[in-house]
Amino acid sequence: MPEVKRYPNRLGIKGWFGGGRWGVERYLYTLHRLTGLGLLTYFLMHIVVTSRRALGAESWTAAMATVGAPIFKVGEYLVFVAFAFHAFNGLRLVLVELGVLTGRPEEPVYPYESSLDVQRPFMVVMMIAAAVVMLLGGYEFFFMAH
Amino acid sequence: MSMRDTPLWTWHVIAGLIILVLLGLHMGIMHLSGVLHFDAMSPAGDSPVDWANVAYRAKMIFFTLSYIVLLGAGLFHGLYGLKNILFELGPPAGLRSAISALLLLLGVGLFALGTWAAFTARTVALAASSM
Amino acid sequence: MANEGTTNVIFRVRRYDPDRDAAPYYQDFTVPVPPGMVVLEGLWYIKEHMDATLSWRVSCRMGVCGSCGMLINGSPTLACNTQIHDVARDGLLMVAPLPNFDIIRDLVPDLGPLFDRHSHLMPFIVREDHDEMQEPSDQYWQSADDLLEYLQFTYCIKCGCCMAACPTFATDPTYSGPQPLAQAYRYMIDSRDGAFEERKAILAGEAGPWRCHYAGECSAVCPKGVDPARAIQLMKRELVLDYLRLGKLRRRKPAGVLPPEKKRGRREGIPEHPPFTVEGAG
Fold this sequence. Notes:
heterotrimer; B: mainly alpha; 3 helical TM bundles of succinate and fumarate reductases; C: alpha+beta; Ubiquitin-like (UB roll); Fumarate Reductase Iron-sulfur Protein, Chain B, domain 2; 2 domains; 5-stranded mixed beta sheet; two-stranded antiparallel ribbon; 10 helices; globular
């Protein structure tokens, strides 16, 4: 077969963010990765910072004073928001990826109903639950004095 | 990637479920104790991160152990997730091994640090309360 | 051509000639579109009236062969069963080759990677007895419920739309992708198959379903309702259950040939076939 010149046409990372008539679950896929990366970044730093409790009361109080600044509080709330989304969306993904919420195979008769339609009500419930937790957390973070 | 993804992914999911429970508890104590009126784990009042409250929890063996479980589950879940995302960007084979090794090293190191801190904080808190 | 209700639609078509162009570019064609016209007919109109060099792949023009998959206004689908008026926005229709595959020319993608992956994942029934597999002694016994386990996934026409929609395949050239994995599950779950251990070994690594994170786009765009995402999640379920020693596939014996007592003769009242029109047929 003669060698044919081809033009590479992979969407790449920009395929994670849009550029087409994509469905909701596809954007949740991207959000799940982004929140996961954010949570991991925070978690790794969190391990190091909170390990200072092993050095006693003074070291701990100094560490908490450093991260108690308002900018850290806003950042911490963003982590909380990411947690709420990642947790509830993650629960949906576990149930879907273990075939609990995909539905059984059926003969495709038009109009087709796919596993997306089977899991969608649960997806909506999970997103509402995540939003409620985000709001509760927001109230505590910004309106309740500790 | 190796031929071990079935077990790794299974544990990724199990770790996720463990995190769901333990991190849910952690967030409940740290950030929702006010709205939920759940302050039994912060008896000294004020902020859940005040030393008195931290020491109170550090003395309880449940928290020492659950911190270590959450630490391990979190590190595995997070670093395996990061590895998947990085590998899905299509790095060359040599870079893949480097990423795997680096993430493994990071995970083991932070697990050791966190475990040491959990046990030492317990010892410190117990010693302070017996004085 | 000027029926009632005909409106002009601009076809913004992605063009690429490997001999002339360094990179693809868009070219506009104004096509008069009567109600009921599909994208494929619009492309034919361009080829016949405006630019004979416009290239795409087509065969059956009725949603069966899977040749004319392309990216139409941002969604991978078949040109032959997509109504222009359903998808055109403000009189504009973007037509591009399926993404995630190399472009050979204009709207022609190189589907080679799809077929390579497809064949790599053993898309056939495997029997331990090699001779039996080559020359089955009789039909294998299978219940209607067994059939339903995989029937949906047999409707795949290999058009590549799911691969073009997959965000993981968009970045990862080593990922098997939705089409090959759905077909791998279709044979893995088939009650006549006896190669679970072999399939398991292939699917435990790079080629397996573990890079799927249920973006679900493959199932959303599948023009045949195959639902590859469902197949992939059910595959994960079987592999995880097997790892936890809870799976049923490791203990499954492949279905045997039809026992004589189950055999039925030809039902009464069904006429014989007419004589063959081709010499030597039958």
